[in-house]
Each structure stands twice: as C-alpha cells, then as structure tokens.
Design brief:
Length: about 725
C-alpha cells in the first residue's frame, strides 16, 4: 500500500481521538525536562487544536481518494467549528484550577500518556489495508484467495498491498482492459476453473509488473496476438487445460525472461517453427497431452537453457534428425505415449546432461545402432510398451548413474548379452511382461554389482542357467512368477546372500532341490503357490524345508499337491517324513510266462517269502513266477531305488484290460492285457468302423435336412 496513504489514515485516526478528548498531548523541551512548550497552565484544547490543524493538512490529499479519509476530513471540519466557539473563553480560571490540583493533573496526564502508548501500539492494525472482499481470504503476507460464482471481475475491496491474487471457481469469463488496473504491488495472478473464454488485447498493459500468470483449466480457444508482450519481467505463464488449437507465432515475442511455459492439455496440432524463438531463458516447456503430429526440426533451437521438455501423450510419428541438437542443458525429455515408429540415428547424442528419458508406449520395433550413447548422466530410461522384435548388440553407452531401467511389454524373444553391461549403477531392473521372452543369455546380469531389484515376471521363461544370478550379490528382490519354469538348478540362488524376497508363483514347478535356499539366510518372503507340485519321493526335501521355515513361505497354505491323485490338493508343508518311508524300501521283480490260452484262475493261495508276503495265482497251463530279494541279495540290488509294497497280499489276475491297480476290501488288484498284435488290430478296426459309421450318420442327417428344406419351399410355393 502507498505509505503516504497509510500515514494519512493513521494520523487522521489520531487527530480524531485528540479532538474527542480521549487523549491529551504533553510536549516537553529536549533540553530541560521542566521547560514546557505548552505550560501546564495552557489550555489543553489549544494544544489539541494545533495538532488537529497539522493533521488536517496531512489528510487533505487522501480525502478525495479514500472513503475513510473523506469521513475523517468531514469530522475534523465539524470539530473546527466547535473549537472556534471555545477560542474566546478565558484561560485564567483554568490555570488557577490547574495549579491547585497539580497532583490531580499529573495523574490525569499519566493516564493520557498510557492512552497514547496504547493507541500508537494499535495503530498498525487500524490502517486502510485491512479491507477484504467477503468472498476472499487475505493474509498479512499479501496473498488474497477468492472463490465463488458471485465474482465476475477482480474485486476492488482488496488490500492495496496484495501481491498474490488467486481466483478459483468464479464466473469471471472475461479479463477486461481495466480488470488489473490499480494493482501495482501485484506480481502473481491466477484465474483457474472459471470458464474464462476472452482476454482483452490490452488486458496486461495496466499490469506490466506481473511475473507469474496462471490461466489453467478454462475455456480459452484463442489468444490475442502479443497479449503478454507488455509484461516487463515475466517468469511463468500457465495456459494448461484450455482448448487452444493454434497460437500466433509472435505470441511470446519479447518475453526473454520467461522461464516456465505450460501448454499441456490443449488441442495444439502443428506449432509454428518459430513460436519459441527469443525465449532464451526458458527452462521448462510442457507440450504434453495435445494432438501434435509433427515438430519442425528447428523449433527448439533457440531454447539453449531448456532443462525440461515434455512432449508426452501426443500423436508424433517421427522425430527429425537434429531436433534436439541445441538442447545441451536438457535434463528431462518425455516422449512417451506417442506413435513414434522409428528414431534417427544419433538423435540423442547431443544431450550430454540428460538424466531422465522416457520413450515408452510408442510403436518402435527396433532401435538404431548405439541409440543411447553419449548420455553419461542418464539416471532413468524407459522404453517399455513398444513392439520390439530385436535389439542391437551395441545399444547402451556408458551410463554409470542410471538407477532404473524399464523394458517390458515387448515382443522380444531374447535380449543381447551385453545390453546392461554399461549400467554398473543400476538399482532396479524391470524386464518383465514380455510374453515371448523365452531365453536369457548366461552373462546378461554380469555387470550389475549394485542391483537390488530384478523383475522377470510374466515372461515365457522355461529354463534358467545355474549361474545366471551368480554376480548379483546385492540383490534383495527377485520376481520370477508367472513364467513356465519346470525346474530350477540346485545352486541357482547360492550367491544371493542378501536376497529377502523370491516370488516363484504360477510356474510349472513340480519339485525343488532340498538345499536350494540353504545360503539365503536373509530370506523373509517366499511365494510358491500356483505350481504343479508332485508330492512323491522327490518332494520330501523341500517339504521338510517348508515345515521348518513356515514363516518365510507367505502362501504355504496354498502350496498344494497336484500329483499323485491320492495327495491331490494337500498342502506340501503338511507332508511328514514318515510318509516317505517307502522311498527307502527295496524293489522286487516279477516275471511272467504265459501261453495263448487263458483258463479261469484258481483261488489265490498265500505264499510266504523271507522279505515280503506275496500271494501267487496259477492256472493251467499258464504259470507265474515271482523273484523277490532275500537277505543274501547283492550289494548292487540294495542301491537301487525301491518302490513300496502295495499291501501285505499281492493278487494277480488276468483280465482283458490295460494295466492298472485298484484297491478293494483290503486287496490290491493288478490288471493287465497281454500284448497281442491280433487283438490290437481288432480294436483298431472297431475304432475305425465306429468313426466311419458316425460320419455316415452325420452326412445322412445333413441330406435329410436338405430334402426337408426343399420340400418346405415347394409347399410354400404351392400355397402362394
């Protein structure tokens, strides 16, 4: 606020209080405290009159400009008339009275002095800068926030010291020529979500001091040419969230100091080649979420100080060679969600200071040789969601600072073995959701000593080399879920001493080596569900490990057996060692000698042996012989894998069925069909005969339907 106006208002209030007699003034000489400029015998009213006249002179300039000043001036005029009536009064009597009551006067003067101290201490709060519109909130820092549909123009009832004005959700559809007039301290102006559709060509001529203008989320479809040119020192212009289709080539002419320009979420299609010429201090340019199909190769050449360039979510199909050559200070380049089908060679080579590059969600099928060379400061690179078919052997240059790399949702079947060789600082690698990725080179992760997270989930990987993770000593998270892994080598996780999480869900694993997680002492989360676990002898070791480390297996209740049938849907962790005792039993061999005739079998007769009770069934002229191991079996027989006995009694019967066993009333029956070419030929002939009969029936049905349709057509014709 103007200091003269503030002083005038404050002095006016003080004069009003003096005239009303609420306070008095006692002025003393600076040389001697007893020398009074106004003696105690002087009339206090005379003192007040002199002060009033002085204050009145100071208030005259403000009276015409401020409502409070006008009111004070009128009040003072009335008081002056009253004062003139008192000028002829005699002062002697008052002087005499004051001498007699000296102590009383001194006490009153002390009280008046206290009033002076109080008023002077509260005057800063009682100035003309305290007025604020009813729909606004004003603070002492000069910020005013206004909202409400009742606002159709910039409110006049705002503190003159307002330097930041934020208007949101109003009905201010037009910025007039004088809307911003009389606001010299204002440097930041924001009008958002207000359906603004028109700006007067001279709207900013009355406010050239503005540094930041935000007109986001309105209904602007066009802007007057050079509407921002009157701004002497602009820093930020936000035009995002409008409906701008075109921008005049000279729109930003003369705005050399501009550092931020936001044009996102408009309808721009083809910006002029020289639209940004002259913006030599621009550091941030946002062109995202438009409909831009092509950019001139020289459109950014004057933006030598640009650090952030965002052209994401447009319709770009190609980039011209040399388009980024002058952006030597660029740190962030966002080109994701376009339709780029190819890249020129060396298109990024001039971006030596680039730290963040996003090329995801485009239509790239391949990349030029050495595409990402000469970018030593790159810390984040994303090229996911591109239909890559292959990648060149030399793709990545020296990138010691890169910490994140995203390569997923592609059509790659494999990747070059050295694709990550220059990313020694990589912390997070997302090589997942590639439905055709089946093979990983042995040395793919050889040069990633700092990697902490590796995601290989959602690929089509069937086999992994035993040493593929051997160099990842710092790895903490490994995601291998949703592949088609059928087995894992025993030492594949041996060197992952810092691993904390392994996800093996939804593969085709049937078993795992017992000691596969032996060296992973920091393992806290392991997921194994969704696999085809075979709960036979081979599962015994990993089942024991799951029982002892149940707190590590997060989904242990869902790690279920899929075979054999009698263990179906049983939890692997519930299997006990004693259930696998048969895995150490000895095997026995049974040989059969048969003839072509199969008379009915005789009742079974138990036969006792030294190691296992066995019953044999004989029929003339067919004979069966069983050879069972005894205590004197050879050492080689003891080392063979042994299957468990079915039951205490083994019953063998001949039936015309394929070999299988069934359990009935404590007996285990073994059915088999002797091999006979003639019998097999009979079965095959019957099978072919059935197929031919079915085919003839289908043809006959089709012919019958055809004849029926012809007959119906004839009947309709005759009826017509």
């Amino acid at each position: 606020m103007d200091r003269v106006a503030v002083v005038n208002c404050c002095l006016g209030l003080l004069g009003l209080l003096l005239q009303q007699g609420m306070i008095g003034v006692e002025a003393k000489s600076i040389f001697k405290s007893e020398n009074h400029i106004f003696n105690p015998s002087d009339d206090a009213a005379l003192q007040n009159k002199i002060l009033t006249l002085l204050l009145h002179k100071r208030l005259v300039p403000a009276a015409n400009n401020y409502p409070l000043g006008m009111e004070l001036a009128n009040k003072i005029a009335e008081l002056e008339e009253l004062q003139s009536l008192r000028e002829d009064l005699e002062l002697e009597s008052k002087i005499t009275a004051s001498l007699r009551e000296d102590k009383s006067i001194n006490r009153k003067r002390g009280e008046r002095s206290l009033w002076i101290v109080f008023i002077l201490s509260t005057l800063p709060l009682l100035n003309c800068d305290t007025f604020c519109h009813s729909n606004c909130l004003c603070d002492s820092d000069g910020m005013a926030k206004c909202t409400g549909h009742a606002i159709t123009d910039i409110p006049k009832e705002l503190p003159i010291s307002t330097n930041t004005l934020l208007l949101n959700d109003t009905n201010m559809n037009i910025i007039n020529e004088q809307s911003l007039s009389g606001r010299k301290p204002l440097v930041r102006f924001s009008l958002t979500h207000s359906h603004l559709h028109t700006i007067h060509p001279r709207a900013f001529h009355v406010a050239p001091q503005l540094r930041s203008i935000m007109l986001s989320n309105n209904d602007l479809t066009s802007l007057p040419s050079q509407v921002f040119s009157p701004l002497t020192n602009p820093e930020e212009i936000y035009l995002d969230g409008n409906n701008l289709e075109t921008i005049a080539p000279d729109m930003f002419e003369g705005l050399k100091g501009l550092s931020v320009l936001d044009l996102t979420r408009n309808k721009l299609i083809d910006p002029a080649p020289d639209i940004f010429d002259g913006l030599t201090n621009l550091t941030t340019l946002n062109l995202g979420r438009n409909y831009i199909k092509k950019l001139s190769p020289t459109i950014f050449h004057s933006l030598t100080k640009l650090r952030r360039l965002r052209i994401y979510n447009n319709q770009l199909q190609e980039l011209d060679k040399g388009i980024f050559d002058k952006l030597v200070n660029l740190e962030e380049l966002n080109l994701h969600q376009n339709q780029i089908k190819s890249l020129p060679s060396q298109v990024f080579w001039s971006l030596e200071n680039l730290k963040n590059l996003t090329l995801s969600s485009n239509q790239l099928k391949t990349l030029p040789h050495k595409t990402f060379y000469n970018m030593p400061k790159l810390s984040k690179l994303t090229i996911y969601k591109n239909p890559f078919l292959s990648l060149p052997d030399e793709l990545m240059g020296h990138m010691p600072d890169i910490t994140e790399f995203y390569l997923f949702s592609t059509n790659l079947t494999t990747v070059p073995g050295n694709v990550f060789a220059n990313m020694s600082g990589l912390l997070r690698l997302n090589l997942h959701l590639n439905n055709n990725l089946r093979e990983l080179p042995l040395d793919l992760f050889c040069c990633l000593p700092n990697l902490q997270k590796l995601s290989l989930r959602g690929n089509d990987i069937e086999l992994l080399h035993p040493q593929i993770f051997s160099t990842l000593a710092t790895l903490r998270i490994l995601l291998l879920n949703d592949n088609i892994l059928k087995s894992l080598p025993e030492g594949i996780f041996e060197n992952l001493t810092e691993i904390e999480m392994i996800d093996l869900r939804n593969n085709k694993l049937m078993t795992l080596p017992e000691d596969i997680f032996l060296s992973n002492t920091h393992l806290k989360a392991l997921s194994l569900s969704g696999n085809l676990w075979d709960c036979s002898c081979a599962i015994r070791g990993i089942a024991r490990w799951i029982r002892h480390n149940g707190h590590v297996v997060l989904d242990r209740k869902n790690v279920e057996c899929h075979s054999p049938v009698y263990q179906l849907l049983r939890s692997v962790g519930s299997l006990r060692d004693e259930e696998f005792s048969y895995c150490n039993a000895r095997t026995f061999n049974i040989s059969f000698t048969t003839q072509t005739n199969f008379p009915e079998s005789t009742p079974t007769v138990p036969v006792t042996t030294t190691s296992l009770p066995v019953a044999s069934t004989t029929s003339d002229p067919t004979t069966f012989s069983a050879s069972l191991p005894t205590e004197s079996s050879t050492q080689s027989d003891e080392n063979r894998p042994v299957s468990p006995p079915f039951h205490d009694i083994l019953v063998i019967e001949q039936r015309l069925q394929y070999i299988h066993h069934s359990h009935h009333k404590g007996w285990v029956y073994l059915w088999f069909l002797p091999s006979s070419p003639a019998l097999i030929g009979i079965f095959m002939f019957g099978y072919v005969l059935l197929l031919a009969t079915g085919l003839l029936l289908i043809l006959a049905a089709m012919f019958g339907m055809y004849r029926l349709s012809v007959s119906l057509d004839k009947m309709k014709t005759e009826c017509a």
